[in-house]
Give the backbone structure.
Amino acid sequence: MHKEVLFSVEGLYREDNEITGYRFGHGEKAACIIGAMRGNELQQLYICSQLIRTLKTLEEHGAISHNKEILVVPTVNMYGINVEKRFWPIDNVDINRCFPGDMNADSPKRIAKALFDSVQGYSYGIQFASFYMPGDFIPHVRMMETGFQSPSLANLFGLQYVVTRKPKPMDTVTLNYSWQMNGTNAFSIYTNATDTVDEKSARQAVSAVLRFLTRMGIVKYNNHSGYIASVIEEHELMPVKSDTAGFYKRLKEPGDPVYHGDVIAQVTDPYEGEIIKEIKSPTDGIIFFAHTAPMVMENAVIYKIIRRMHE
Amino acid sequence: MSFPTIAHCIKSYTMIRYNYLCINEVDMINEVVSVKMPVKEKIRILKNHFEPENATGREARLSLVTGIHGDELDGQYVCYEVIRQIKAHPELLTGTVDVYPCINPLGMDMGARGIPMFDLDMNRVFPGDNNGAMAEYVAAEVVNDIIGSDLCIDVHSSNVYIKEAPQVRLNEDCADKLLPYAKIMNADFVWVYSSITVREATLAYSLNKLGVPTLVTEMGVGLRINNAYCRQLIDGIFNIMIELGIWQGERPAVKEPIMSTEGQVDFIHAEHAGLFVSALGEQMGHIKKGERIGDIISPVDGEILQEIISPADGIVFSLRENPVIYKGTLLARVYAVR
């Protein structure tokens, strides 16, 4: 393992925001893995730390393939993590909306540029990502339909689902998009936590990455072969919205099967404690995303359901 | 005895709810969209609708929108003053004016730029989605309400970090259609910039694509109101209203703006972390090549780390407001004639 500072942002009173990279193996740029881009992505940082720990052991046992190099960057936003802010704290800018970056611009764009210079050219790019709304997903691999996406490769992570989506304008300035447009097969992995650590899904994410790296001939690691993924397009997921507001009780978890008419959530009056709404499933299917916060506002998306799919 | 119309009922309700005095019959406050919050509160996006007394429905319509970013307040004063002047002289109104004073009320209440719960920039979710999450749903309803306008003006106030001179910003894709309006907006500067995909999710881009010509104005700095800049823009808005046949008042004197298409914009970035101290005082404006824009200083060792010098004869139209800076921070934009 070789540890190096890829880029550093000089602080005024704080110590420099150093972006640290961990390289394993030597030779061809095989795979690059990025952890927390946002300051609240603690699960994503934790997954990277566990991955680095495992790769260190694998390297010591000669299990990194000849002429293959892996780069892991646990975070680019140490400043944000330490003050519990999602974005780059100085000007409140989302670094993952600054790619491919610009060295003649503000610090978030410089960070993006420096990071992109370090991480481009790899055959495979993997980012542990998060969603802006509070909720849990079934762990899955997500890719944008840029014309360069490869769902069959995404299948090799062995997670249950691969989700593809058409990029929106705001997606065109993300790392994943820039990676794909510059020849890297890019994947985002979503687990079911962001600002807390969920050990179970973190282990699942580490295993998925090691499974993928093994199947691509980058490491030698013997683990369970996982699932043959179902590939779904995001627009096929049926959103279920809350048509009222109050305390929220979710009755189904990600991965649970539901049937048309099942009561899947309750909304309770925040002052009087009465159930004011029972929300029913509009379809048969599997819960893919579930809102987690204890309260809900009107029109919030509380579930996304994979329609007409059974366990 | 005549029964009240639905519109009159809404008007009566909103007058009671917001303690508005009905001093004339030209305005009507409507709820464009509302969202219930978890505990006994509703977020309402309001608009104040003005039309002439004997409206035919064929009048030209201007929509004035602001408050997409909760930390931008100049638009609040602009709305107040435009409404005040229309109410003071309803006889001069010959078209429709819809004023949308705040698209992000939660952000404004907290002084936050985005939607506070998600830290989501609302000007990156247009044209919205009726089946989407809260922000996208609100965005879709706002867009639906504005459609049909002959012109929309989206008033912005930079952010809390950068101060801007009064300017109109146009995407080059729409420049042909919008430049005639931009030139009579009483702005110091009209900046035609090249198209970037991420901006396609702004209100202005979405409305322009949907056939509503939409101008974006920028001025001042976040969380402050600059009265002089506001008055300048208000004159520009009334000038446009006269041009569209919406207002029969006396035409205000408006300045001819400097056009970015005739020169180039230089971006000046910090080379060091430190404190930026401007040498320009309160006002931005004309500057000569080699003149000092400011310094980056080190408060720890009492040294000047970098002197910021104008690269050309021109005007400074953007200037760093928050003195705390990092390497790369944008300090100024200088426009120079080629």
Q: What stands out?
A: The radius of gyration of chain A is 20 Å. The mean pLDDT of chain A is 94. Chain A has two domains: 2-228, 236-307.
